[in-house]
C-alpha cells in the first residue's frame, strides 16, 4: 500500500498547504535539543496520519531539516524517514491498531551490528491541532478537540477548523547507537523504545493541553465543601447574625467574583488578534530560556509564573508567548480594577481570576480565595501573578508584596500533590505605552481609573514600539527551597490551616527576594535602554553620534568579557545598527553641525527615558561604582578599591535586587577590573589603578559609567547627611524629610530621575542600612546616627560631585 500512501500525500499536499499554519516548538532545535541536521534523522510520530506527516513536512522545510516524506539511505537499503506508533482510530469504533514499528526498529538495530559507525537520530515529534483541554462532559464543540489518534473523518474537521492552530513540537533526539548498547536483543530494545515513546507522547500531550477543565458544580463543591471555608461561613453567620444559607450565598458570590471561566476558543481568537497587534507595534519579540520551563512541564511540575510588571501589555504578552512556546496558558491573578465591562468578561474567559487589593478584615473572602488558589494548584493549572503587586512607575523592580507567595507556601504546607516551581520572568520593552501617565503619577497626579474607553483609546494610539523582550529566569523548586530554608517544614502539614507556621513570614520574605533577584538576573538589554543609560549620563543629555556608538560598543563588550549572568541577553547587532534602530523610535532629537550629528534629549523625553535606563541599571551598578572610585581617587590600590565596593555593595544589592552574594560581588568586581584594563578603561601603574587618560578611546565611556551611578550615591549621601545633622529621627520623618530635600536637590541640579525622590526607593535604602546594622537604635525606637554610619557617609561624600556635596552641607546647615 506504499503507492496509496504516496498518492494521498500528493493529493492532500495542496489543501493542507492552504489550510495549515505551522508553529514550530522550539524554533532553535539545534541549540535547544542538540539535533544535528547533517546526521540521518528518523522522525517518530504517534499516529499514522497523512495530515500530521504533511504538517511535519512544512515544519522541517522552515527549520532546514530533512524532509519526512523522502526515503533515507542506511547502508545499502532505503528506509522511510517517518515511523508511526499506532494507526488512527476507526470511524465506527474506538479500536486503535498498531503498526509495523516493532519490526522496523528491530531491523534498524540489527543493521548497527553490521556497521559500527552507524548512528541514527530518532526524533520524537508531537503534532497538535488546537489546544483544547479535556472536559468531564463532552459537548458538540468537543468533537473538534484533537484526540490522541482521531479517525480520518474526525481529523478532516479538525484540520478544517483548527489548521491555523497547528503546533509541531520536537523532542530531544535519541541516539540509535546508544540504544544498541543497552542489554537485550534487538527486539527487546525495540519494544523498550516503543514503550518509552508511548509514555513520552502521553506526557507531552498532558503538558501541552493542560488538565481537565473545572465544571462549575465541581468548583462550588470543592471550595464550599472545604473545612476552612465551612468554618469561615459559620463565623460570618455568627458575627454578622446571618442565616447559614445567606452566609453560604455570600461565599458563592465571592467565588463568582474571583474565579476564571477559561475558554480555549477565546484563547485561539486572542492569538489571531494579538499576532496582528504585535506585528503592527513591535519589530519583534525576543524570547529566551523557554526550554527550562518546557522541561518542568514535561516532568509534571505545577508552574507558577512570577513576572515583573511594567505595563498592562504584560498580561497579554506573557500569555501569548507561553501559548506559542507549547505550554499551557496560565490562570492569571488580576486586580479587581480590571474587572470592568466588557473587558473583565473577556479576561475571565482568557484565564484571569480577580483579587481585591486588600483582604484585611474579610476572613470569608480570604478563605474562599485561598481555597480557590489551592484548587488550581492541585488540579494542575499553571498560575501567573505579579510579586510587585502593581506596575512599576520608575522602571525599577518594586519591593515585593508577599501575599500571593505566602498563600502559595501555605498551599504547599497543606499538601499539593505534585512538585511546584516558581518561574521568574523578565519583561522589557523599548516603549511602554503608559510611561507618560506614570510620570504624571510620580509628580503627584491621581491614578487614572481603568475603563473601556481608556482601553479603546490606548489601542487606537498603538504605533511602532520597537522590540519586546521576555526572558524566563532560573526556576525555584519550592520543595527544594523549603528543605533548605525550613528543613522540618513538613511537620507543619496537617495542622489547622488558620494557624500560620512561625517560620512562614521570614521564609516568604527570603523567597520574595529570591524571585526579584532572579528576575533581574535574566534581564535583556535593548537598544532603548542602553542608549538611555548613555545619554542620561552625559552632560545636558547630549552626545555626538560617534560617541554614543562608541559607548554602546564599549558597554556591550564589557558585559561580554565579564557577563553579569549567563541568562542576561545582549543585542546581537553592531553598535551602529543598535543606535540607528533606536533613533527610529523618535524618542531622541537628532541635529547636525559641521562636526557631525548630535543626539540629545529634550527635558520631557529625558525624564521618560529614565524608565528604560532603570530596567538595566543593576547591570552597570558595579562597573559604575568602580568608575566613580577611580575618578574620585587619583590612584588607588586594587585592594582598597575592592574593600570600598564591599562596604557599599549591600545597599546597592538591596535597592537594585542584584543576585551576587558579597563574596560573588567581590569576585565579579575583580573580573570587571581585569576586563576594564583589557579595554583600556583602567591603567595600572605600580600598585595603583588609575582611570584612563582623556586621550584614550574608552575614557568617555568610563566617565559616563561614573555618571550613571552618581544619582544613587547622591541619594545615599543625602539620607545619611540628614540623619547626621539631626542625630536621631523616626523612620517616617527620615523618609519624608529625605524626599523633600531630594526633590529640592533635583530642581537645583537638573536631576531628571523621578525615582531620585521616590519614597519607595528611599525606604529601601533605609531598610538596607538597618539590615546591615549601619544605624543604631535609640531607646525610644528612633534611628540614630552612629560612628559606623558616619564612616559610610564620608566614603560616599568622597565619591559624589563636589558641587552636590557642598549643596548638601548648606542644606543641612540651614536645617540646623
Short descriptors:
816 residues, alpha/beta, Glycerol-3-phosphate (1)-acyltransferase, 4 domains, eight-stranded mixed sheet, six-stranded mixed sheet, 32 helices
Write up what this structure looks like:
The chain has 816 residues and is α/β, with parallel strands linked by helices. Helix content is 53%, strand content 13%. The strands form 6 sheets. Strands 9, 10, 11, 12, 13, 14, 15 and 16 form an 8-stranded mixed beta sheet that branches. Strands 1, 2, 5, 6, 7 and 8 form a 6-stranded mixed beta sheet that branches. It is globular.
Determine the structural class based on helices, strands and strand pairing: alpha/beta
CATH architecture of the largest domain: 3-Layer(aba) Sandwich
Task: Determine the number of helices (DSSP H or I, runs of at least 4 residues).
Answer: 32
- What is the CATH level 1 assignment of the largest domain? Alpha Beta
The number of distinct structural domains comes to: 4
Distance between the termini: 98 Å
Low-pLDDT stretches are none
Outline type: globular
Q: Strand portion, in percent?
A: 5-15%
Largest sheet: 8 strands, mixed
Amino acid at each position: 500500500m506504499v503507492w496509496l500512501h504516496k498518492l494521498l500525500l500528493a493529493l492532500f499536499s495542496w489543501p493542507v498547504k492552504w489550510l495549515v499554519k505551522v508553529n514550530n516548538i522550539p524554533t532553535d532545535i539545534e541549540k535547544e535539543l542538540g539535533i544535528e541536521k547533517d546526521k540521518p534523522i528518523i522522525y517518530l510520530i504517534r499516529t499514522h496520519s497523512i495530515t500530521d506527516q504533511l504538517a511535519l513536512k512544512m515544519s522541517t522545510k522552515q527549520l532546514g531539516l530533512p524532509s519526512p516524506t523522502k526515503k533515507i539511505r542506511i547502508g545499502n537499503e532505503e528506509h522511510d524517514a517517518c515511523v508511526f506508533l499506532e494507526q488512527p482510530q476507526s470511524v465506527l469504533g474506538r479500536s486503535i491498531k498498531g503498526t509495523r514499528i516493532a519490526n522496523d526498529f528491530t531491523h534498524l538495530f540489527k543493521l548497527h551490528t553490521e556497521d559500527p559507525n552507524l548512528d541514527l537520530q530518532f526524533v520524537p515529534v508531537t503534532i497538535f491541532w488546537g489546544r483544547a483541554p479535556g472536559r468531564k462532559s463532552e459537548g458538540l464543540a468537543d468533537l473538534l478537540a484533537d484526540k490522541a489518534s482521531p479517525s480520518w473523518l474526525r481529523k478532516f474537521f479538525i484540520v478544517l477548523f483548527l489548521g491555523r492552530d497547528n503546533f509541531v513540537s520536537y523532542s530531544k533526539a535519541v541516539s540509535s547507537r546508544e540504544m544498541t548498547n543497552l542489554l537485550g536483543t534487538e527486539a527487546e530494545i525495540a519494544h523498550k523504545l516503543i514503550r518509552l515513546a508511548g509514555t513520552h507522547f502521553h506526557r507531552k500531550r498532558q503538558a501541552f493541553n493542560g488538565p481537565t477543565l473545572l465544571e462549575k458544580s465541581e468548583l462550588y463543591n470543592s471550595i464550599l465543601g472545604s473545612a476552612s471555608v465551612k468554618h469561615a461561613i459559620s463565623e460570618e453567620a455568627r458575627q454578622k447574625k446571618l442565616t447559614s444559607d445567606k452566609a453560604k450565598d455570600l461565599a458563592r458570590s465571592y467565588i463568582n467574583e474571583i474565579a476564571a471561566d477559561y475558554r480555549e476558543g477565546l484563547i485561539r481568537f486572542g492569538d489571531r488578534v494579538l499576532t496582528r497587534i504585535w506585528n503592527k507595534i513591535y519589530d519583534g519579540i525576543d524570547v529566551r530560556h523557554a526550554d527550562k520551563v518546557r522541561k518542568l512541564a514535561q516532568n509534571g511540575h505545577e508552574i507558577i509564573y512570577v513576572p515583573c510588571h511594567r505595563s498592562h501589555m504584560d498580561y497579554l504578552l506573557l500569555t501569548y508567548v507561553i501559548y506559542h512556546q507549547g505550554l499551557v496558558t496560565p490562570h492569571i491573578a488580576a486586580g479587581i480594577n480590571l474587572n470592568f465591562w466588557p473587558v473583565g468578561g473577556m479576561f475571565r474567559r482568557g484565564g484571569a481570576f480577580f483579587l481585591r487589593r486588600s483582604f484585611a478584615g474579610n476572613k470569608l473572602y480570604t478563605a474562599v480565595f485561598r481555597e480557590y488558589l489551592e484548587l488550581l494548584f492541585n488540579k494542575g493549572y499553571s498560575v501567573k501573578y505579579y510579586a510587585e503587586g502593581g506596575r512599576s512607575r520608575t522602571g525599577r523592580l518594586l519591593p515585593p508584596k508577599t501575599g500571593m507567595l505566602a498563600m502559595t507556601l501555605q498551599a504547599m504546607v497543606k499538601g499539593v500533590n505534585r512538585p511546584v516551581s516558581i518561574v521568574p520572568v523578565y519583561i522589557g520593552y523599548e516603549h511602554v505605552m503608559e510611561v507618560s501617565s506614570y510620570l504624571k503619577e510620580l509628580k503627584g497626579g491621581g491614578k487614572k481609573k481603568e475603563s473601556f474607553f481608556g482601553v479603546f483609546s490606548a489601542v487606537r494610539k498603538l504605533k511602532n514600539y520597537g522590540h519586546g523582550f521576555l526572558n524566563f529566569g532560573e526556576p525555584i523548586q519550592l520543595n527544594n527551597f523549603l528543605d533548605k530554608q525550613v528543613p522540618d517544614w513538613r511537620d507543619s502539614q496537617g495542622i489547622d490551616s488558620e494557624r500560620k507556621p512561625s517560620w512562614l513570614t521570614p521564609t516568604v520574605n527570603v523567597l520574595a527576594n529570591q524571585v526579584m533577584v532572579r528576575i533581574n538576573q535574566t534581564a535583556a538589554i535593548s537598544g532603548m535602554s542602553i542608549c538611555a543609560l548613555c545619554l542620561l549620563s552625559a552632560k545636558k543629555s547630549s552626545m555626538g553620534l560617534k560617541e554614543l556608538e562608541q559607548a554602546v560598543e564599549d558597554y556591550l563588550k564589557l558585559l561580554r568579557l565579564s557577563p553579569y549572568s549567563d541568562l542576561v541577553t545582549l543585542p546581537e547587532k553592531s553598535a551602529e545598527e543598535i543606535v540607528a534602530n533606536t533613533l527610529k523610535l523618535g524618542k531622541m532629537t537628532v541635529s547636525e553641525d559641521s562636526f557631525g550629528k548630535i543626539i540629545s534629549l529634550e527635558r520631557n523625553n529625558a525624564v521618560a527615558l529614565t524608565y528604560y535606563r532603570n530596567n538595566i541599571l543593576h547591570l552597570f551598578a558595579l562597573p559604575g561604582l568602580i568608575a566613580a572610585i577611580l575618578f574620585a581617587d587619583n590612584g588607588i590600590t586594587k585592594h582598597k578599591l575592592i574593600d570600598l565596593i564591599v562596604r557599599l555593595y549591600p545597599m546597592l544589592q538591596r535597592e537594585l535586587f542584584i543576585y551576587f552574594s558579597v563574596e560573588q560581588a567581590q569576585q565579579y568586581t575583580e573580573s570587571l577590573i581585569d576586563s576594564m584594563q583589557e579595554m583600556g578603561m583602567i591603567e595600572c601603574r605600580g600598585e595603583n589603578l588609575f582611570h584612563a587618560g582623556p586621550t584614550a578611546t574608552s575614557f568617555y565611556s568610563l566617565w559616563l559609567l561614573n555618571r550613571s551611578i552618581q544619582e544613587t550615591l547622591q541619594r545615599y549621601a543625602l539620607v545619611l547627611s540628614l540623619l547626621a545633622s539631626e542625630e536621631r529621627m523616626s523612620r517616617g520623618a527620615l523618609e519624608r524629610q529625605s524626599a523633600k530635600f531630594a526633590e529640592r536637590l533635583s530642581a537645583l541640579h537638573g536631576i531628571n530621575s523621578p525615582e531620585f525622590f521616590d519614597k519607595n526607593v528611599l525606604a529601601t535604602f533605609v531598610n538596607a542600612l538597618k539590615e546591615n546594622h549601619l544605624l543604631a537604635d535609640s531607646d525610644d525606637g528612633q534611628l540614630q546616627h552612629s560612628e559606623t554610619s558616619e564612616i559610610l557617609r564620608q566614603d560616599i561624600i568622597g565619591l559624589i560631585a563636589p558641587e552636590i556635596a557642598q549643596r548638601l552641607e548648606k542644606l543641612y546647615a540651614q536645617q540646623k
